[in-house]
Design a protein that fits this description.
This protein is mainly β. It has a domain of about 45 residues. About 0% of the residues lie in helices and about 35% in strands.
Length: about 70
């Protein structure tokens, strides 16, 4: 009989992954939502950013898209 594979554990995003430390201080790596304000980061979906709180979507420009 075949055994079921163990379920994969999700890696949770920690808050520290949204910030980067540079010489000038702490820099946010993702944009904040224009509607909700500071404290609400937007999710990166390849060609757009979207807010999980209010649903606001901002599309990236052609030159700014990265994988």
């Amino acid at each position: 009989m075949s055994e079921k594979p163990a379920p994969k554990k999700k890696k949770s995003k920690s808050v520290s992954s949204y910030y980067k430390i540079e010489k000038n201080g702490i820099v946010r790596t993702r944009p904040i939502c224009d509607r909700c304000g500071p404290g609400y980061f937007m999710a990166d979906h390849g060609n757009r950013y979207s807010c999980g709180h209010c649903g606001f979507t901002r599309y990236k420009t052609e030159g700014a898209q990265t994988k």
